[in-house]
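seq as requested:
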Amino acid sequence: QAGAAITVVDLADTLADLPTDWDATACDLAAPGAQADLNAQAQEMGRVDIVVANAGVVPPWRGVDQLDRDEWSRVMAINVWGVAATLGAFTGPLEAPGNGSAIVMA
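struct tokens:
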């Protein structure tokens, strides 16, 4: 972290316990406006050297015959689309310095 400015993008209720010198932006990656929110965040930040796309939720374990369509849709929206949207929003700022890196975890 030496010299780094850190910004976390996550659900609003998860941001309260971050270190005081980190910036935080609330965003629900499953929401329809998430891509626009991420794009705005990326533009506001300008230069970005590293993006960690670590969006992921795990629903309660159950049998296939008990899957809930709405819950499954939200899981896929966050775990798949959330990562893709994050990378898409920050591609330009990562390319700008010429040596930006993306780390993907899901």
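The mean pLDDT is 89.
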